Amino acid sequence: MELLSRKIGEVMALSLPRKYQVIGVGVSATTYSETVETVMQGIRKGQQLVVTAFPVHGVVIASQDQALKAKVNSFDIITPDGHPVRWAMNILYDTRLTDRVYGPELMLRLCRRVAEEGIGIYLYGSYPHVLDGLHNNLIRMCPNLLILGWESPPFRPLTPKEDHEAVAKINESGAQIVFLGLGCPLQDNFAFDHRDKIKATQICVGAAFDFHAGSKKMAPPWMQRNGLEWLFRLKQEPKRLWRRYLYFNSAFLVKITDQIIRQKFFTRYPLRL
Hints:
This protein is α/β, with parallel strands linked by helices. It has 13 helices and eight strands. The strands form two sheets. It has a six-stranded parallel β-sheet, with helices on both faces. Strand 5, helix 7 (128-141) and strand 6 (146-151) form a beta-alpha-beta unit. The chain is globular. It starts with a helix and ends in a 7-residue tail after the last helix. Mean pLDDT is 90; it is low at 1-5.
């Protein structure tokens, strides 16, 4: 009870972006600048936030998994990582968001900000060679950035001993932001399971590790602006991604169309969180 009361008090002490329900998932109506400022305020107040960036497939995965949905809906911020998610929020709630809050871009903006203020970060996820490239490129893009540690965990559930050692290593580093690049939903489950163990703000950024390391290419800006990043990534990795985009894009379209019809024409219940 004491832990629950403390966590509730922390959230109330910090002004968080308002959430709106998108097929059952509470997505924050936020911007890059607001998310960065909220994270920085949390650090100054000594509050460890949990932030994730959800594109279409993240929203659909959470909407279909009750346990995962309950976990991510408890997060402090879920940014609208994909333009279709942003468009849905604008249609449903008139949020008037002019841009998404894309995980890789959010990571870069936060790294630049903490570099200016001498705040350390920790990188957790992906493969060793990706982390090497990510470390080097972040230092180049963000002069004076303090990367206090990095780790590529095994691609299997951690043993209790391994988990304890990973948490200890992160906490002993003194980092105040931990970027998680484990992919959805692994990184979201990890963040939830460790929100009271890791003494730092956790930010789930998925493929940002690969993009900033240079191991995968980002879509051209015009494709990103028009919600066509999925098509670019599909061209890059057709065997791995065709099922994801065929299923999740279709499922999102069906689910969000149903929500729009129900909310706009048949019900007037508020879905704001």
